[in-house]
Amino acid sequence: MTNWENIVNSLSKTKGAYDSWVKYLTFNEINEGKAYFSVPTPFFKDWISKSYAFDIIKAFKEEGSNINSIAVNVANCSFKSNVSNEMTHEIKAKEIDSFVEPVITPMKREIASAQLISSRLDANYTFENFITSQSNEFAYAATKRVAEGSAVSFNPLFLYSSVGLGKTHLLQAIANKITKESPEKKVLYLTAEKYLNMFVKAVSSKDTNQALEFKEMFRSVDVLMIDDIQFLIGKKMTLEELLYTLDELVENGKQLILSANKAPNALIGLDERLKTRMSSGLVVDIMPASFELRLNVLKSKALLLKTDIPFEVLEFLAEKIPSNIRELEGALRRVVAHAEIMGEKVSLSRAKIVLKDLLSSTEERIISIAEIKSRVATFYKLRQVDIMSKSRQKGIAVPRQIAMYMSKTLTTKSYPEIGREFDRDHTTILHGVRKIEALIKSDKNLLEQINTIRGTLL
């Protein structure tokens, strides 16, 4: 007698899959060396048969059941061994690798792709409209190279930054450029939320074609872009399907561009296999916008608004709204709209009144050196006493120097003041800051770590 509970436990240990698929699998019987199961939807039927038949057969054999194949049925169907081929999807162990999905017509794919793109792209998001500076020029160059169809050695391209710094602009700029210059290419841009909604709809549908069209749509594109991947964390089934899609596209030489609010390795809760896949190409950080970039963005938007805006107003906004380009642009539009409605000229005094609520919520938070030391110690799994110690072990000395560097870049403290916080003289602090400045020019991993810590402070 087969112990199904033991088999469930065994299957659940592989690929962390219980919440993804095992709990949806109902065991019915074994007949002539074949195990019969039922699942809730056609999507599960296809997905489990293709991806997990070998695991299931292996688990049964380990429990002493000599089965050679499985049959997966949609719930409420007959599970007898003589069930018709139309109702049962059978996979033998030796046939797992050669499984072929039903073909979806190119017309259906193209219609679905066109609808998805046209519903999401903003025509204003182009490379020509993107203002660059040192903080984002590398991301700009990388995305433009992909959009131009140049041969690239990186796939996928992964962009990350805090909100409102241009990730969405660059992704949509790629889609706009390719669809305009190479209309024969199939390009998909969508948010992670949209991908999740489509996946849930496909899984829930009783229409087999809808589930298969979902797979085929994403696996037949030339360029796939998914924005804000972090919203899929915790959605195990969705991430499992996404992993298979990304793997297949990369293997077939198709281009992937993904974005999130953090680097792949910093996305807590994301499957390690996905982290590896997303980090296997080029990971690019869009740094917080400098004052110069913020000012240039405002100048560009002022020209588009065709309104006389005093320079002092632009300068004031660039100084007071430091972290979010999207919020900065919104503030400018708000000031201009208020002036037009009231029949007034734009002025600094009026801008301060109009934006009083916004400015009070965006005043720069004061970050203490004690907080910096605490966050650095936590990130590197050290004690704060280690940061303050005299130890020269690399695992302690480098985090200590990072804390010194961040104290200088995130506070207004002088070198002597920082020195007192670390119980060092100012020359030691200066040396530590310069050491980190030199390292991050060549060590992208270290830069990524520092940006992750910075994100917890801002």
Structural overview:
The chain has 458 residues and is an alpha/beta fold. It folds into four domains: 4-98, GMP Synthetase, Chain A, domain 3, CATH 3.30.300; 106-285, 3-Layer(aba) Sandwich (Rossmann fold); 291-361, Helicase, Ruva Protein, domain 3 (Orthogonal Bundle); 369-457, Chromosomal Replication Initiator Protein Dnaa, Chain: A. The protein is 53% helix and 10% strand. The strands form two sheets. The protein has a five-stranded parallel beta sheet with strand order 6-7-8-5-9, sandwiched between helices. A four-stranded mixed beta sheet has the order 1-2-3-4, covered by helices on one side. Helix 2 (42-62) links the parallel strand 2 (34-39) and strand 3 (69-74). Helix 6 runs antiparallel to helix 7 and helix 15 (369-379) runs antiparallel to helix 17 (394-410). The longest helix is centred in the N-terminal third of the chain and has 21 residues, at 42-62. The protein is globular and about 85 Å long. The termini are far apart. Mean pLDDT is 80; it is low at 77-119.
